[in-house]
Write a structure and sequence with these properties.
Strands 1, 2, 3, 4, 5, 6, 7, 8, 10 and 11 form a ten-stranded mixed beta sheet that branches. The protein has helices at about 1-10, 20-40, 45-50, 70-90, 130-140, 255-280, and strands at about 100, 110-115, 120-125, 150-160, 165-170, 185-195, 200-205, 215-220, 220, 225-230, 235-245, 245. The protein contains six helices and twelve strands. The relative contact order is 0.15. The chain folds into two domains: about 1-90, no CATH class; about 100-280, 2-Layer Sandwich (Alpha-D-Glucose-1,6-Bisphosphate, Chain A, domain 4), CATH 3.30.530. The protein has about 280 residues and is an alpha+beta fold. It comes from Cyclopterus lumpus. It catalyses: cholesterol(in) = cholesterol(out). This is START domain-containing protein 1.
Length: about 280
């Protein structure tokens, strides 16, 4: 499990990324957090023995609460970790990004075409919320998203795998002007929360218990990732980076999809700002 994350984060699957210092810093941060999770599950000693290149850090007894995971649960964690690793590699490759949209709020969307993934979109924004508040809204309370985002009809958490991985089923809403139309998504979502950054990664999965639903086109999230970090000098604001990588499926021209996806990112960010404003008003 961990070697796959190391391989992906260090760019072995993307040879031209190996020399990027930003990627190395990101990889170290994410892998360090994953080691912490795995210590709690009681698997870290096996990995350290197997991969002697990793430095051994003995955890304190009070820090360990072994919660053995079943094989299928470990698979979800692995899928979430690998999705996050692939998405981070895409974000850290600074070459080839082209400006798509610049908004008055300062939000910027760029795009690039990645072999095997197609056209992906990167949104950069600054939000008036702390890193912890955004983590709570976007991951911990993900099932409440339909309450503030009208483009979502429902998000249901189907499985909780520890504190860092969930499996969700999402149904988009029927909204006027939606060029893509109503879709549903089955995803694994993985989080890595640190003092300086929060990473939220995910990708589409398949479950025999939940095949594509009649009346919906099942779209697929490719490896996708959100990075949240405090704004320099202001812990009450956060820099928000979102890689959107999606195959909407169905018989839609690419030109329509490539117009709709960055607009969906801007709409989501606008609704999120309204949610934050309403929260601060109530507070």
């Amino acid at each position: 499990m961990l070697p796959a994350v190391v391989k992906l984060c260090c760019g072995i699957s993307y040879p031209h990324l190996r020399s990027l210092t930003g990627l190395q810093r990101t990889a170290v941060a994410v892998i360090g957090q994953e080691l912490t999770h795995m210590q709690r599950w009681g698997h870290v000693h096996h990995l350290i023995r197997t991969h002697s290149g990793l430095k051994r850090h003995e955890p304190k007894p009070e820090d360990i609460s072994p919660v053995p995971l079943k094989e299928d649960q470990l698979l979800y964690v692995q899928q979430g970790q690998e999705a996050m690793g692939k998405a981070l590699c895409m974000l850290e490759d600074t070459q080839g990004w082209k400006f798509e949209i610049t908004e008055s709020e300062g939000d910027v969307i760029c795009s690039k075409v990645i072999p095997g993934a197609g056209k992906v979109f990167r949104l950069e924004a600054v939000l008036d919320a702390s890193m912890d508040e955004l983590y709570d809204i976007l991951f911990v309370r993900v099932e409440e998203m339909h309450q503030w985002n009208p483009s979502i009809q429902q998000i249901k958490v189907l499985k909780h795998v520890g504190a860092a991985t969930i499996v969700t089923h999402e149904v988009s809403a029927e909204t006027a002007g939606n060029l893509i139309g109503q879709r549903d998504f089955l995803c694994v979502r993985h989080s890595c929360k640190q003092k300086s950054r929060v990473y939220l990664g995910g990708a589409a999965i398949q479950l025999e218990s939940l095949p594509p639903q009649p009346g919906f086109v099942r779209a697929e999230d490719g490896p996708t990732c959100i990075i949240i970090q405090p704004l320099d000098g202001d812990m009450g604001k956060s820099r928000f980076t979102w890689l959107l990588n999606m195959d909407v499926k169905g018989w839609l021209p690419k030109s329509i999809v490539n117009q709709a996806l960055p607009r969906a990112q801007l709409d989501f960010t606008r609704h999120l700002r309204r949610r934050l404003t309403a929260s601060s008003t109530l507070g």
